[in-house]
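Example record used in the benchmark description.
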Amino acid sequence: MSALANRYKIIKDLGAGGFSKVYLAKDLDRADGRRCVIKKLQTSSEDPFTVRTARRLFQTEVNVLKKLGSHDRIPQLYTSFEAERQFYLVEQYIEGRSLDRELKWWQWPEAKVVAFLQDILETLAFVHRQQVIHRDLKPENLIRRDRDRRIVLIDFGSVKKHQPSGQTAIVGTQGYMPPEQLLGKPRFSSDIYAVGMIALRALTNIDPAKTPFPRDPDTGEFLWQHQTNVSAELAQILDKMISQDYRRRYPSAVEALETINQLQDVPAPSRRRMLQAVGLGVMGLLGTGMAYPALSQELPNLKQPPAPSPSPEKERITPEEIKKSATQPPLSLATLAQAPEMLDKQELLRRYGSYNECRRVAKANGIKFTTTPTWDKLIHAFSYSDALHHISQVYLQTYPNPKLAGIIVELSL
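Model output (structure tokens):
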């Protein structure tokens, strides 16, 4: 494909939404070859109403990004243009992974959910103060940024200026959309509902877009607390966020954030529980017939005084410390136990050239199979090998010990 507008070289397709197609591109006019996201207006229907709605939403997104892009955790709008009767916008590319990928693997501990709520509600409070409703908050539209592990809110293609009354087009994602939004009457609290549903998914590992939560037959509210174990304080906050009646929710992210920040101290996971969490993630792979040797390296001769062991009663941290520990590596559970980035057959062929070479490299790296591996088995083996290699690196950096130099630890998975 030739450069779009004689400037942007398309690198790859990032997917499509209801009214647009999205690409990753390189800006050829810049000396640094900056990568950016190109969003092209595109509808699946030529119906006049659909086309008009798409153009209105597209122009609204441009206007909103101009207004909101100054926030550190919202993509900056670079420009918008028309080429060959097609409409495009160009925005900042965020290095990171969507929260959807992170949520597919295991349930989050309460402290991590609280940190997530503080993080996303800070950004959403800024959005709401500008009288804007996002309308499509879901894990796919939240990016865990690589450089600092903060949550970035993307895809403002469904945004709407707040209007106390009136009806509008129904947009959003099933499972994360509250009843009033399904009626075309979104409010600030509609975004609060979506954030609450994302938190429930993190706590329970149940995707509401695929498996609806059961409801109380008397109140119609969701029943979810039997799927996890959280404090009564957090459960009360989440129940208020996901109430079926918008009048019972927090009016906006501003009030929800204030409540989260006033939450009583959440028990901090001890180092032993952190190790157990990582260990359980590894134990969950039993039966795959794969073994992985941890990284062997020369460690710096660092002497550190032993940290005092706090009593269980005093082992508590403030909400600010929770957020810091959850977003700043290497001590957070989120950093130690990142979800493996799943490879694919094409990536393994790019790395090693052939099936037989993949098997040879696996054997050389200590990955052993009890039966002849299929491509699917190789893909999972190398994916988890990469993830465990990362965990080993982080742990060795976090707790350096010169006595470990030259030791190879083999884990049977």
